[in-house]
Amino acid sequence: MEQGRFSLPSRKGEEAGHGGERLVVVVGLLVAVGLMVGVVGAAGEEFSDVEGGVHAPAINSLAADGVFEGTECDAGAFCPEKPIERWAMAVWLVRVLGEQPAVAGVSRFVDVSADEWWSPHVETLAELGVTAGCRTDPLSYCPDEPVKRSQMASFLVRAFGLEAGPPAGFSDTVGNVHEGSIHALAAAGITAGCGDGTRFCPGLPVTRGQMASFLHRATDDSIPVGMADRDVLVALYNATDGPNWKDDANWLSDSPLDQWLGVTTDSNGRVTRLVLPGNGLAGPVPPQLSNLTNLKILSLANNKLTGNISTQLSDLTNLQHLYLSKNALTGPIPAQLGNLTNLKTLGLANNKLTGPIPAQLGNLTNLETLTLAINQLTGTVPPQLGNLSNLQNLYLSKNKLTGTIPTQLSTLTNLKTLGLANNKLTGPIPAQLGNLTNLETLTLAINQLTGTVPPQLGNLTNLQNLYLSKNKLTGKIPTQLGSLTNLKVLNLAHNGLTGTIPTQLSNLTNLETLNLAINELAGKIPTQLGNLTNLKILNLANNGLTGGVPIQLGNLTNLETLNLANNKLTGTVPPQLNKLTNLQNLYLSKNKLTGKIPTQLGSLTNLKVLNLAHNGLTGTIPAQLGNLTKLETLNLANNELTGTVPAEVGNLPLLINLYLSGNDLTGPIPSR
């Protein structure tokens, strides 16, 4: 731009500032000193009403180029919230286009006086085909009317030759005469809409501050293609109830973006990380986030986000980690997310997502963690997930998935966690899962799986957790499971398993939970289970086990729950159980145990539940049970006990439930 053309009289023909000649000198001086005085007015004065505003960077930049000379709203003021009039818009637009104003004294519009200093700019705008006026009979320009947002879109599209764009998704532009221009403006990243970003507000006037930002985005090469990152963040703030966030430190301020809470930028000022988990964000995820094209990490988990996941997020091709779990998002998982081939983490768990798992997610070959658990997803598990060769964690539990487990998952040799529990999966457990030798957790519980437990699972020597409970599995427990020496949890409960408990399970010395309850197991409890000294839970209830309670179970000194109820066990209650000093729950009910209640049980001072009901126990109730000061439930019903109820039992401070019926007890029930 030439400095001399800013030596202009004011709109009413008065001289701007201190005179045109001096203005040239001032502008030249500003250029010479590197424009270091900030946002300036006509005579080098700083605008008093701009500092800290969201449009300040654009106003700063354009003011330094002299775009606003002669159009100030008041001395030293910019009035960023005031609607811009059509005459001022013409001046700004001609200047940013670098066009020389038309010859003064000529105007085609009946309401534009050739005597106005700004009339050549309006005439130039008409010559460029940017404006055809506001009405044709007579041909008028309406210079004092405010520019509407829809009109602004068409002005900018014509001025900068913007290409047509796809529908921007604004809910209030359908049928508008400027709709095509609005789409083009959005595609160029010059607008993000208004309010929460779902509308454009075509009938509202454009403010002077907004117009400055629009022009700045359209002309400044330092701003990347698409929306400026600052404006995207503003759109996010507005769309997600920013004023009510738990913490919004520096948001909407003029501070550098990397000082805004949760924002990290690169050396060029582009946003690379946006991390706001658990911060109270509420509302839809604005599609404008797709303009943060340098983004590598987006974490908005554990908030109150609603609505669908925008397909436009697939534009974030540099994204490596996407966390949207623990929100209230609805609708389907966009198949377009399969375009994010740099993704390492995709977390969409704990939402209300519906529909199938897109097969296109199989394109994410860099993915290491895929978590879609706790949604309402339907359909089958896509076999294409077997293409995710780098996958380490796959969480699909607690959905409504049906069909069989794809054998293709057996190719995921880096997998450490496979979670398919709480679905409606049918068919057998693929023997090929035995190829997943890096697997640490396999959970297939609460499905409708049938067939046997594959012995090939014994190849999973790194396995720590195996959950197969609540299915329809049959057959014997494979002895090969005894090879899983790193196993901490083995849960095969609620199935139809038969045969005996393999003695090889005693090799699982790291086991903390062994749950084989509610099956059809028979035979004796292996005495070798007494070697599992790390056990905290041993549940063998509701089977058909016979023989005695092994005294070797007294070696399980870390045991907290021992449940052998509802079997066919015989013999006495072993006094050696008194060594289980950490025991909190002891269930031996509904067996065929005989003999006396061992007085040694009185040393189990951590017991909360003692249930020996429905046996053939004889003798008296040991007074030593009065030492069980943490006991909440004592059930000795339906035995053959005699004598009185010890007064010590009545003194148990936490006892809530006392069941003694179905015995031959005499005397009063002790009172506290």
Verbal overview:
With 672 residues, the chain is α/β, with parallel strands linked by helices. It has 9 helices and 35 strands. It has an 18-stranded mixed beta sheet, with no helix packed on it. It has a 5-stranded parallel beta sheet with strand order 5-7-9-11-13, with no helix packed on it. Strand 1 (135-136) and strand 2 form a beta hairpin. Helix 2 (56-64) crosses helix 7 and helix 3 crosses helix 4. The longest helix has 13 residues, at 20-32. It is elongated. The chain starts with 19 loop residues before the first helix and ends in a 6-residue tail after the last strand.
The count of DSSP E runs of length 2 or more, i.e. the number of strands, is 35
Distance between the termini: 97 Å
Shape: elongated
Taking pLDDT < 50 over at least 5 consecutive residues as the criterion, the unreliable ranges are 1-45
Question: Could you outline the blueprint of secondary structure elements for this entry?
Answer:
Blueprint: H1 20-32, H2 56-64, H3 86-96, H4 119-127, E1 135-136, E2 139-140, H5 149-160, H6 179-187, H7 208-219, H8 229-239, E3 263-265, E4 271-275, E5 282-284, E6 297-299, E7 304-307, E8 321-323, E9 328-331, E10 345-347, E11 352-355, E12 369-371, E13 376-377, E14 393-395, E15 417-419, E16 426-427, E17 441-443, E18 448-451, E19 465-467, E20 472-476, E21 489-491, E22 496-498, E23 513-515, E24 522-524, E25 537-539, E26 544-546, E27 561-563, E28 585-587, E29 594-596, E30 609-611, E31 616-619, E32 633-635, E33 640-644, H9 647-650, E34 657-659, E35 664-666
Parallel strand pairs: 4-6, 5-7, 6-8, 7-9, 8-10, 9-11, 10-12, 11-13, 12-14, 14-15, 15-17, 16-18, 17-19, 18-20, 19-21, 20-22, 21-23, 23-25, 24-26, 25-27, 27-28, 28-30, 29-31, 30-32, 31-33, 32-34, 33-35
Antiparallel strand pairs: 1-2, 3-4
Helix pairs in contact: 2-7, 3-4, 5-6
